[in-house]
Amino acid sequence: EDDGPDPEKHCGHGRGGMGEEVSRKEDKRFITGRGDYVDDIKKPGMLHCEIVRSPHAHARIEEIDGSRAMAMDDVVAVLTADDLLEHDLATMPTLMDDTQDVLVNDKVKFQSQEVAAVIAKDRYAAKDGAEKVEVEYDVLDPVVDAEEALKEDAPLVRDELEDQEDNHIFDWDTGNEEETQRAFDAADVTVEEDMEYQRLHPAPIETCGAVADWDPGKDKMTVHMTSQAPHAHRTLFSQVSGIPEHKVRIVSPDVGGGFGNKVPIYPGYVVAAAASYVLEQPVKWVEERSENIQTTGFARDYEMTGEIAATEDGEIEAVRVDVLANHGAYNAAAQPSKFPAGFFNIFTGSYDIDAAYGSLTAAFTNTAPGGVAYRCSFRVTEAVYLIERMVKVLADELDMDPTEVRRKNFIPSDAFPYESATGWNYDSGDYEKALDKALEMADYEEYREEQRRRIENDADKLLGIGVSSFTEVVGAGPGKQCDIAGIEMFDSADLRVNPTGNAVLRVGVQTQGQGHETTFAQIVAEELGMDVDDIVVEHGDTDTEPYGLGTYGSRSTPVAGAAAAVAARKVRDKAKSIAANELEAAEEDIEWDRESGEFHVAGAPDRSITITEIAAGAFMNHPDQEEPGLEATNYYDPPEMTYPFGSYVVVVEVDRETGEVEFEKFVAVDDCGNRINPMIIEGQIHGGLAQGIGTAMLEEVTYDDNGNVTGGDFMNYLLPTANEIPNFETGHTVTPSPHHPIGAKGVGESPTVGSPPAIVNAVTDAMSHAGVSHVEMPMTPDRVWKTLSEHGLDI
Ligand code: CDP
Asked: If pLDDT is split at 50, 70 and 90, which confidence band does 8 have?
């Protein structure tokens, strides 16, 4: 039993433990160009794979002729669904139990879908070969909009499925419908707003890719791939291919950003593996940017109608939401299998609301499949957007300050653990403290006065102040609630101390840039009194790491971080027995001192021993009752999720002439419980806020009526650059998680989740005096200008 580090004191004790701003160990190799990404891998005899993609969104394939491609020098093979059928690899399961074509068998269902693959001796030859593959299509009418897709005469996307007579996938609901209706019937005030969370793409810098290498000598398949979940992918690979799992090795080397995009398995991986198996040579497949945006897992695409019932003085009595979800051509969302709408039912947010009801309908369309958790915990982003926007809509209706409405309704800090109306068990929180801090940092009251002045003076630029006080839910499991393809969502750590006192920590999660090689070492340093430089963290290789479910949903710290702490404590327990042997004392008299990191005899602090000396003892002089060596493994199934939170305040100027929005102030106060590395946390917040700005202002995957992706490359899918990013002012509060061994919650996703509503609230706030209640994302200048003009605010 251990209470863990004290939040008031945790300062790493000078050894790089909890709370110290340790420089990122991994950065040396990244900034010196020594990172090792999938596309850096070269193997003798390696072939290259290029995918032939459909130009049409909906079409029946009449014929595929690969003969002109095959006739080219250096082209080795042209694969189609027929070839894959021979090996029973023509389809693959999605994470939501749907079945997706690896290469199109019969009918194309979205633009750029995988139709054939060309394998050649180099990448250029593969690309030239792909251009020579001739495909005859019978083009069909597509449907790209979810509402249109559910109409009776809509083209049927999935006609190969028995019993599928329309494009409806599933209905889902949560909460108490009758109770919520009663609250609405009796309410003083009700508000309603339609809002869309547009289709986004996670857009990691590195696109997806793989190098598959079938070794016929060992009957072993090794796949180096851009994977956020190597072990889960190994199990799925084995199930799909029939190769026994112990003969499959997945290696996820350095990964250049994932953001949820690298959780699903994509056809390219399977084709590369199938080609390597058939040709008995290594095969590399790396997609291009437009292939990544147009075909791999998108995020969001929820059309939502939110409603709130409240008293006249702003007490929220009920919240209701109805959603139409566009899932694309396959149900390929990436989320725990028992949660068809992810964690959307946390839509009561940071507020103590008695009645809540949510309903959702999901539809197939002729668009790429997806619904991945883009830097968020499975649809919590959509939920936070909904409630934080609705609070602002209510505040405007009641002519109240939105911070007042928030304060009135916050779950009080002494009400935790708190069970929400939709069944979530919040671990801890102090929402008012974070809001107070953010308002103070943002000079809130002064900006409110300035806002009034500008309206009175008919100024050219209006001022808007937006707030969001969000709560996240991160760290899936528990395993009983959360599984991926049936595998419970625990995570793991394996800690081995060497005779010379340094150690290797192997973890089941994989990093894509979040700094795990540093922060996980800090956890061990804290828990064993070792120096952070004496611990190396390994991840991403299924042959050596313990089984884990991967990195997404900010689950690394809550789950694998906990496993690392528990494994270190197990080592500490054994270390006590060795210390007793070395110090010639009884084991129960040995105490460990977190401050000094040493073991000593109770009442005799000078009779002490370090972990380095203990490590030597474990290998050279182990006690008779103990096994030699010093190591431990922990598979951690979290008892609950963790609930990080924060308050963001955004001040914008809206140009009445052009509709342009400029950030005047951007304050983010986050609470992720006990902090492992404040510098890394700040980096996470900065990156996530940039992505939040991209969401609110710039990004959208769009389609025209023919199903052409019109937002499928970086000329049209606009990522924020340094030009669009303001100076962020960050702050924090610390409310430890009571059930996490080191009191930590996740943090990586808070800024992406929490910032879009703050930004939209700010822009609408600039115009709310003229009756503007909502502006859809992305809030491009033309959209904002139109809103200004419709409300007589333009000049
Ligand atoms: O799963 P993922 O790593 O994306 O998310 P996370 O657990 O929220 O962690 C993001 C980064 O912030 C990791 O390097 C964590 O170790 C670090 N972190 C921290 O220093 N202190 C916390 N309380 C939470 C995360």
From this structure: low
Pocket test for ligand 1, best of 255, 372, 427, 557 (most atoms within 8 A of CB): 557
Task: Tell me the three state secondary structure of residue 679.
Answer: helix
The predicted pLDDT at position 1 comes to: 55
Shared domain check, 732 and 666: yes
Q: Is the CB of 228 under 6 A from ligand 1?
A: no
SS (H, E, C) 130-166: HHHCEEEEEECCCCCCHHHHCCCCCCCCCCCCCCCCC
Report the CATH number at residue 747: 3.30.365.10
Range of the domain at 443: 390-474+641-790
Find all residues with CB under 8 Å of 43, minimum gap 6, and list them: 211, 213, 282
Structure tokens, 669: 């106060």
Q: Which residues have a catalytic role annotated? A: 228, 375-376, 749
* Residue of 398, 547, 391, 385 lying closest to 472 (CA atoms): 385
- Would 363 be classed as within a structural domain? no
- What residues contact residue 469 under an 8 Å CB cut-off, 6+ apart? 349, 350, 388, 406, 410, 431, 434, 435, 645, 646, 647
Same domain for 427 and 453, yes or no, is yes
**ipTM of the complex, rounded to two decimals:** 0.98
Q: What's residue 13's pLDDT?
A: 80
Res 317 pLDDT > 70: yes
What is the tally of structural domains in the chain? Answer: 3
Question: What average pLDDT score do residues 299-316 get?
Answer: 98
CATH number, residue 273: 3.90.1170.50
Residue 279, domain member (yes or no): yes
Ligand 1 pocket member 673 (CB < 6 A):
yes
Residue that finishes a domain, picked among 295, 316, 351: 295
Give the integer Cα–Cα distance in Å for 465 and 462: 10
Tell me how far the alpha carbon of residue 515 lies from the centroid of ligand 1, in angstroms: 8
What is the predicted pLDDT for the residue at 637?
98
Among residues 295, 315, 350, the one where a domain terminates is 295
CA atoms within 13 A on the CB side of 173: 11
Q: Can you tell me whether residue 523 is helix, strand or coil?
A: helix
Amino acid 2: pLDDT: 66
Instruction: Please tell me the distance between residue 38's alpha carbon and the centre of ligand 1 in angstroms.
Output: 24
Domain shared by 667 and 763, yes or no: yes
| Distance (Å) from CA 736 to ligand 1 centroid | 14
CA atoms of 121 and 73, how far apart (whole Å): 9
Q: Are residues 497 and 548 in the same domain?
A: yes
CA neighbor of 157 nearest in space, from 97, 111, 95, 91? 111
Q: How far apart are the C-alpha atoms of 578 and 598, rounded to whole Å?
A: 13
